[in-house]
Amino acid sequence: MAYRALTLEGEGAIAIITLNRPDAGNSFDFRLMAEIDNATKEVGEDKNVRAVIITGAGKYFSTGIDLSMFTNPQAMVGDKADAPAPPAEDDKTYGRGTVVGGLMRIMSMRKPVIAAINGPAYGAALSLALGCDIRIASDRAKFCMVFIKRGIVPDTAGSFTLPRVVGLPKACELIFTGEAIDAAEADKIGLVNKVVPHDDLMKAAKELAGKIANNPPLAVAMAKADLYKGVEEKDIVKQMKREEKSQETLLNTEDFMEATTAFLEKRQPVFKGK
Prior knowledge:
This protein has helices at 30-45, 68-71, 73-82, 99-108, 124-130, 158-166, 168-177, 183-188, 201-213, 217-232, 236-250, 254-265; strands at 6-11, 14-19, 51-56, 113-117, 121-122, 134-138, 142-144, 181-182, 194-196. The protein has twelve helices and nine strands.
C-alpha cells in the first residue's frame, strides 16, 4: 500500500521502515499510528523479508504520541477521518490500527526487528523501540519515559518491556522521574545493544540486519520464538522440550542440509527458507 507518514523500502532481504513526520518530531498522529500497524503487518507477511529496521527521518526517532490530537478536537476528528483504514475485521491483533498494533506485530513476527534510534525516542516511541529485538543508537539519541510528566502512565507495553530490558529498579527510576537519559547512559544500563557515531547508524544497522538475513530464516524465526518463550518460562525442562520440538522441525529442513553440506564442502551456504 502507499504510505504518507512513513516510508517502507526494501534492500534485498531487509525492509526499512522510516517514521516520516520530521516537522512534527515523527510523532504518532492517527495516520502514522495506522500506517505503522499496516507497515509492520506488510513486512511480517512478506516472505522475501528476513530482517527489519525501524528508524526515524530527520532529528528525531519519535517524540511519541502527537499531543495536539488531544488539545484540538476538530483536528483530532479530521486526522482520524484522513487516516488509512485499519486492518480487516478478521485480524485479531490486539490494538490493530494503532501503534499498539504495530508493537504487537513487531514482537510476534517471525523475523528480527532492529530499532535504529537516530535521535530522541520519547514516550510511546521508546515503548515501540523496546518491543524491537535489537536496539542500535546514534550518539545523538535520547530516551525518556515521559508519561509521568504528562500526568499519565506508560503505555504501549512500556511497563512490561522496560523492566525486562533494564531491570525493575532502573525501570522504576526512569518511569517515576520521567527524566531523559543520553545514549551513553542507555548503553550503560543495557537499554541499547550499542551506540555508534550518528553518521554510521544506518550502516551499522544494515550490516547487522544483513548478517541476520544471511542466516537460515526458519531457524532465526524459531530462535526468536524460543527466546521470548524462554524469558517467561519458569521450568527449564519445559523450555528444553520446546527447544527439542524446534530442533526436530529444523533437522528436517532443506536449510539444515544446506548448512551441513556447505560446512563439509567448505563453502558459504545459500539458504532458501525451506
